[in-house]
Design brief:
Layout (H helix, E strand, L loop, with lengths): L3 E3 L2 H14 L4 E7 L5 H13 L2 E6 L9 H6 L4 H11 L3 E3 L3 H4 L19 H4 L3 H15 L22 E7 L3 H13 L5 E5 L19 H22 L6 H9 L4 E9 L19 E10 L2 E10 L1
Parallel strand pairs: 1-4, 2-3, 2-5, 3-4, 5-6
Antiparallel strand pairs: 7-8, 8-9
Helix pairs in contact: 7-8, 9-10
Amino acid sequence: MSIQLVTTVAGLHAENARLLSAKRGASQGLVPTMGALHEGHAALARTAVEDNDVVVASIFVNPLQFGDAVDLDRYPRTLDADLALLEEQGVDLAFAPSVEEVYPGGEPLVRITSGRLGDKWEGASRPGHFDGALTVVAKLLHYGMPATGLPAGSAGAASPGGGLPAYRAYFGQKDAQQLALVRRMAADLNFPVEIVGVPTVRSADGLALSSRNRFLSDDQRDAALVLSRALRLLEERANAHEPLDLESALALVESQPLVELDYFEVVDPGTLEPLAENCRETPFRGDALALIAAKVGPVRLIDNMPLSS
């Protein structure tokens, strides 16, 4: 079956209900994206298709999370290619609304705040970014919710077993801080959705896939590989129960002149607070998350590595 494209919330609800009824669906997955899709997004879509009877993917470039209008304008829009990629993974429905559809009264007067979790790391470097991201994610989670806006007893309003379909939303581990924030938002605000994290997809040389990688020159792309090399170094030490020795990994990154480092830290996966005492001289134990961000040429890159022992 070919993928269906809708551009309005009403159309999303109607088509979603039809698909749930036609497939007698007991589960539904949502894959929120900003388009310019690559293999990392394909992995999200494949995981959602494996887990659910009906899968919806959204394609929306959210202006609220861009601090720079030039960056917003430059963000690639590749709708036809995006639809082809999603269809190849088996996604049922694509939701590609306009800005006016998502924000009909202009910029919202009330937004989700990212709180203490969003003040650090990416939030410190990009003020307001996570408030904008969480605001649109909250709207998308509502839009994609099974039976949202459907009268009781209508087609698709309930699964064949009598309850609402299971509802899951899929986010990449590459945006680790965003994933942590979305999970916290869903838990703190009682969203009836399971947030599923999908491991980072990398190119053969280790660079984390990103829609922004296309803006790197060949030399800049080669230089950017130092980010994943430094993260792998920490992973190897954690797996060997050795001290992480973050300073030597930091020196590796700083040895690359084309890389302008923003931050490189090992943090608690839940609170995102630094774990300094568990990183230097003592053997690593437990679970942690290594975060890194840097500017390479015109492109800001982020990456991370879960650590465990």
